[in-house]
Design the sequence.
């Protein structure tokens, strides 16, 4: 759970215009919540290692331009992130990170938090104050109970309805588990004990960027999140505890054609027979990549390149086969070649958001950061649907801000301020797979053996899980020391359902000492709970 996150930043716009002779100089003053000047505040531009300090009167001067973003930090205060919008003078108010109040409100995972710990605007609706019985609608019963709360089309908006199409409704959390408005409507209103409303983008202090539009936290009299069909009465910790052996092991049977190739006298003969059997194995999800790997494993780069050229020139190879091949090339650091395949995938699957993402991430590694940014940032304010849209945007938000931090020269003029967030994590794990007809039910098991997954998106130690079919992400800002495991299931009984998985792990994500590792796995069907990766913190 995030304990230190951006707070309220107040901009006082000066009447004078931006100076032409000194257009890269920004001045301002930092105050605490009592309007007292705050000295020794550290100020840095996002993406820059250089920092400045406020003087004894809280004043500062820094070289920065319009659309740069300043980060203000001070011990004992909540970090503030301030985009420069073109004003000559900036006034920043920083709130203390207070502890000790006895008043409790509902927070992430159903845990009680001190009101002073939760630095967002909030309101609490008790069961007796709900009008649900009269309206026969759980959500309509919230109307008029908290200032600034509006109900429209059975959804809650906490900052006004900016667009009917845009997905800017508040996040729904029921008994500590992220849920949906549809499910909230199915709950017997007599079971609702209270509703805690966290307003504004700072609701992310509890649930991350997916709560940028606020959060509606519903507590029931009967803990719905702790009741499962086979775990009645079990605690959340018990329900989401991984009890099987954790040892990395990925084993695959050798395909018949590879066994035949191994018996041949030369790799020239293997390449010739590979091409002769293309039609026979046209429907095989792994034929081309298996042969490519065969040559790579025998250090025959000439023939492996010939296989790659066959794949690039083919018009019959499926998008999922191309994606598996692109995974392997990315793992090998052959980014230009992977980008060629990702371009082909995009042409075959133009409505698949993952295709755009794969290509954009490839562009970042070959000096095309601006194109990558323009491509990915487009999705942040695009309606992608209720089911998968918010999860994909969460992942995209991390990657767009990561681009900005790594390449400060990227022009971000069109990026809305609410899409600029701090994206430093001790650990980030991204799991991609090449098939959209198979759900691998990915689990990330932490050192305390609790697993994060689609059904348990927030863990007790602060891990956050997001994902759509074919793309899952796990992030944790302050990782506990120990081993983290990636567990997947390919329990399909269809022989052709071989699936390729790419696991990308980042240690110190977004920091100067970031470490990245990419590994690709071939998963055969009818194999459950395969532990495919281990990350040590």
Sequence:
């Amino acid at each position: 759970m995030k304990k230190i996150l951006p707070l309220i930043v107040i901009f006082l716009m000066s009447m004078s215009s931006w100076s032409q002779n000194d257009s890269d100089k920004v001045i301002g003053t930092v105050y605490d919540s009592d309007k007292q000047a705050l000295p020794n505040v550290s100020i840095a531009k996002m993406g820059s290692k250089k920092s400045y300090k406020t003087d004894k009167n809280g004043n500062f001067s820094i070289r920065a331009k319009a659309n740069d973003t300043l980060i203000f930090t001070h011990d004992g205060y909540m970090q503030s992130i301030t985009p420069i919008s073109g004003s000559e003078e900036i006034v920043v108010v920083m709130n203390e990170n207070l502890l000790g109040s006895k008043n409790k409100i509902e927070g992430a995972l159903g845990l009680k938090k001190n009101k002073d710990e939760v630095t967002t605007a909030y309101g609490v609706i008790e069961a007796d104050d709900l009008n649900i019985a009269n309206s026969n609608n759980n959500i309509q019963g919230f109307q008029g109970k908290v200032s600034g709360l509006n109900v429209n089309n059975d959804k809650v908006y906490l900052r006004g309805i900016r667009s009917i199409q845009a997905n800017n409704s508040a996040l729904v959390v029921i008994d500590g588990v992220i849920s949906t408005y549809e499910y909230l409507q199915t709950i017997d209103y007599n079971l609702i004990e209270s509703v805690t409303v966290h307003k504004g983008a700072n609701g992310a202090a509890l649930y991350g960027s997916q709560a940028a539009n606020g959060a509606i936290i519903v507590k029931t009299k009967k803990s719905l999140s702790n009741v499962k069909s086979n775990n009645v009465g079990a605690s959340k910790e018990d329900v989401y505890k991984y009890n099987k052996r954790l040892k990395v092991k990925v084993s695959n049977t050798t395909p018949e054609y590879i066994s035949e190739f191994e018996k041949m006298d030369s790799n020239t003969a293997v390449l010739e027979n590979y091409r002769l059997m293309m039609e026979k194995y046209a429907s095989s999800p792994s034929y081309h990549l298996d042969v490519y790997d065969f040559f790579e494993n025998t250090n025959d780069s000439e023939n492996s390149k010939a296989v790659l050229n066959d794949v690039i020139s083919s018009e019959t190879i499926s998008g999922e086969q191309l994606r598996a091949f692109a995974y392997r090339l990315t793992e090998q650091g052959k980014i230009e070649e992977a980008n060629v395949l990702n371009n082909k995938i995009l042409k075959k699957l133009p409505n698949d958001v993952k295709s755009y993402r794969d290509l954009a991430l490839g562009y970042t590694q070959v000096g095309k950061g601006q194109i990558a940014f323009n491509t990915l940032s487009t999705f942040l304010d695009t309606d992608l649907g209720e089911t998968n849209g918010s999860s994909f945007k969460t992942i995209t938000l991390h990657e767009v801000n990561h681009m900005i931090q790594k390449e400060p020269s990227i022009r971000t003029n069109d990026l809305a301020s609410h899409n600029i967030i701090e994206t430093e994590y001790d650990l980030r794990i991204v799991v991609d797979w090449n098939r959209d007809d198979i759900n691998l039910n990915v689990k990330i098991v932490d050192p305390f053996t609790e697993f994060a997954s689609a059904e348990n998106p927030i863990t007790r130690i602060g891990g956050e899980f997001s994902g759509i079919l074919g793309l899952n992400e796990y992030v944790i800002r302050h990782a506990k020391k120990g081993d983290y495991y990636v567990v997947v299931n390919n329990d399909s009984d269809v022989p052709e359902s071989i699936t390729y998985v790419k696991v990308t792990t980042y240690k110190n994500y977004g920091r100067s000492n970031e470490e990245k590792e990419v590994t690709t796995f071939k998963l055969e069907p009818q194999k459950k709970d395969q532990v495919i990766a281990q990350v040590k913190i």
